[in-house]
Amino acid sequence: MTESSYIGKIQDSLFHSITLVDLPCQHVDGYSKPEIELQNSKELLLDPIEIRKNEQECTLIERSVNSVRISVQLKLVDDLEGWLRSKRIAFILERADHIDILRREPVPGFDMSFLVTARHLQMYNKAALIRFIVSLMTELASANDLKRLISSRGRVSSLSISKALVI
Amino acid sequence: MSQQRVTSVISSHGWNSECTILAVCPNNNEIHLYEVVSGENTLSRTTTLQQHRQLVSSISWNRGGSFVSCSHDSTAFVWSLEGDRWTPEPVFTRLKLAALCVRWSPCGGKLAIASGEKRICISHYEKEQKRWVSKPFRRCHSSSVVAIAWHPGGALLASTSTDGRCKIFNAALPGIDGQGQAPGAFGDVLIDVEAGIGWGHAVAWSPSGCQLVVSSHGPALQFLCGLYGSSAASLQPEAAGRQLLHHVQLPLRCVAFLSETSVVGAGFDGQVFLFERDGEGVWSYARSLSPEPAMRIDGGGRRGAISAAFSAKLAMFRSPAKKDRTREQPLLSAEGAAAVAPGHDNAVVDLQVFTDAAGTPTGRFSTAGWDGRVLLWDAGKGATETEESGEGRAEGLIKAPTGVLTKHCPNRLLFDPVGTCD
Predict the structure, then answer these.
(1) pTM score, two decimals?
(2) End-to-end distance of chain A based on CA atoms, in angstroms?
(3) Closest Cα of chain B to A26: distance in Å?
(4) C or N terminus of chain A, fewer CB within 10 Å?
């Protein structure tokens, strides 16, 4: 699966999955919680959608009547990139309060999770929400600038060290 | 086209039978009443009613000029005008969980309240006790009941639920309707069928009571035809011809019959769709009443992007100076198209068909959506006028043109805390 068809599939399935109803809890009075997190009414859940690009990269969309949880797993090339990415994700997760739809803790086994509820649909444009999720995903997956800078900096410093050793 | 900015999100709405007063819930515990200013197509806000403690989930008017509202805090109130004040009268629902949908019976003497407690109760005014009392159905759904609809005869009630079933109940109260209006006793399930695929969203009877339509999350519509006779006693569950119609649109949150051969539905697309029945009794999708797709995901943008990239490459061969301009043009046009598109740009959550004094639909209806708009429609003509629209809250941010490339759409702005948080 190519990058563009992967992104297109994610966009399409998000567009069809994010059809949410503002349904309150069936068990507790005055309680409105995302059913996908509670998981205590089986009839309110739908089968999850898994979109897999290759062995490593995949997206899981878990659907329920009033919420959708999107979990993303990114490609891991080497340790340096993994370390850089974990720092970036930690930076973003610290600001999860401002990014409403971001789940503070990713679903186990995934790098990042989003939780979209009916309230978010009321507040934000749906197309813009999907665009935000997809662009955040693609930007995190393709952030190589810092890695290039680090390796070039390492090259320069090793060069100067070796120069100093030669002279 | 007149536009008034009133509220940002509408969770339910209801017009009175003369179409002079509009009750709107702006997604909180209040009910706002608007009166139509005669002569002009504008609304003026008259009253704010605060009696509920949580979100008002449904509003329904009767022909007598009073209306009922129910809320997620499980309360329901019948509002009637005394002098110049709207006075609430509580309905003793005996529910513990959220009330999701309330409807007056066609005769106006009974109320049906559906709840998240998986129950439906029928309320009526007890003259001796001087209050609204309720009687629940014994056996009901196994999940939240999300939509109910009264048979035009007033003795049957159709309901659909998130358990994916559609049921028709005998809702005749002997004291009000008299005996023998419907087969069986009060609360009996007369028909129990699948709502379609997945959980149900909406249910509606045809004007004569011969047909029933259920919308489900599939997305699909289930038509039950041949429920012969407007008198409920002649209902023949076995004869019910079923048709399951899959449609390509997103699920429909609300459906209604305009006549025996046409159905309108609206939902997560923000558009209103028309379904028609041909001579052989087969239902099919006819067309969208909205002039232009109101909501789309990057469809136009992607096409715009391809054409922009293509024309940019063409321009590269011609002259480098033209490159920027050719890239900008499709973006601007897409932006303009999205900005002026009439119709809803978020999910439609409520639809009400206007009827004349005899109870037959006039072909006009109104829709309310999460974009804070109430639109009036005339079947066949599309939106006739826009009565109100969303507040400036989101104009620039949320109502960002949908067909624009991500690069030019500032995603950071989407989550700018200014204005977007409550």
Answers:
(1) 0.79
(2) 53
(3) 5
(4) C
